[in-house]
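Look at one such:
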Amino acid sequence: MSSVSDESVDQIGCIDGSVLRVTRHGTEVHLHIGDNTAPLSQIAAKRLSSLCVHAEPGVQAEPDTPTRPGQPSAPVTPSRWGVSGRMGEAAHPTLVDLVAGGFVNEGTVLALRHHGAERTATVTANGRIAFDGHLYDSPSGAAKVACGGASVNGWTAWKLSDGSPIDDRRWLFRADAFPGEGHRYAPSTAKDMRRIARRWVDYARTNRLDPAEPSVEVEAFLRGHGYSESTLSVYRNNLLNWQHLYGSDTTFDGVFTSVDAVDRVVAPSPRPTGRMGEAADPTVADLLGAGFIGVGTKLTLHHLGSERTATVTATGQIEFEGDLYLSLSGAAMAACEGASTNGWTAWKLVDGSSIDTKRWLYRADDFPGEGHRYALSSAHERRTIARRWVVYALSEQLDPAEPRESDIEALLDGHGYSESTLRSYRGHLSKWRQMYGRNAPPIQSASPTKLVTPSALWNGGEVRA
């Protein structure tokens, strides 16, 4: 059924076993089912139109009235089901949609038990159900006949060969279409949202949970996968959008929380240690959570002589030209018209430095990483010298991952450190290079030639903010 237009036209459609007609005369809209007529509001008419399958004028037989297989019928096309609101408002995918999308195949056998007897039906090529020599447009229509006229939800009553209801395939269809037509997310973001939605639906159906209500089970679902805290944050946000679309009117304060979920929360896995290629890179969400950047931070990128701007969102995503991207490189690729670009070095902050400088400061603040065996005072000392090194390296345009011996001596010289302190600091930076460098050998003892560190970097022995 087409949507209600501004003209006075008749529109015909069918929904779960009833042929209906909608007429509009001026501002008045009426629904006709057989000899019965009822007025409709504009909103109700539009919502109803999204639930109906189009039927040509002149249709007389109701879909629940069986037709003999082999009788000519008009080809069936998938309905345009939009996802724009909560479950009660979102249009349901039909069996036609499932067949067209490959979620149910032609010839699929369905089984239903009623009063101890098993009834079987078959899915046809055009998305109808063949039962007892007749064709039905909906699972509920066929189930009603199979159950002797009792009203039955055919989507849960008809089972597939593995014992799962055909409704499971409808949830997978929804996940594959998530976040729906007309969204403003970047393709990479939408792909990630679909992936986590599919995983959630599989998990929910396996554990006999309601796919529309992930709230309490989110932490149990995400637990044990070794996801970083930033990835967990993105996944929780995706599932929050899923529940907003399909769930009840339950609201959340940005994250999924409940008494039951608190006990299920698992501490993030320790950051991997090792060389730079193995160490987990902090994400934009990490920088945001640690305060190295703020919500709304403006980023700029120059491409072919023009400046492109983007903004950091509260969820650690990058908003560029109305689209949301999960990574800086994804946003940079879009800004550079598809060219592969390292977004961490391409996007610049207001002071002209790349956002990657904040990532190095984050690493220094996290050094020597979670799960270390050092005392708190020793770990604090390591972080202090790592911060100093990163600030010095960035100001001198050196590689923060590769503190060379001459650079280290220049960093340490002129501060009145004792020889024992110098040895300790050299050892810290040797560990730093071992973690983030490129298979460089351990740093040796002091170099004979000592360079002078610019005093502007220091303020009483501490790094200036």
Q: What stands out?
A: The longest strand covers residues 18-25.
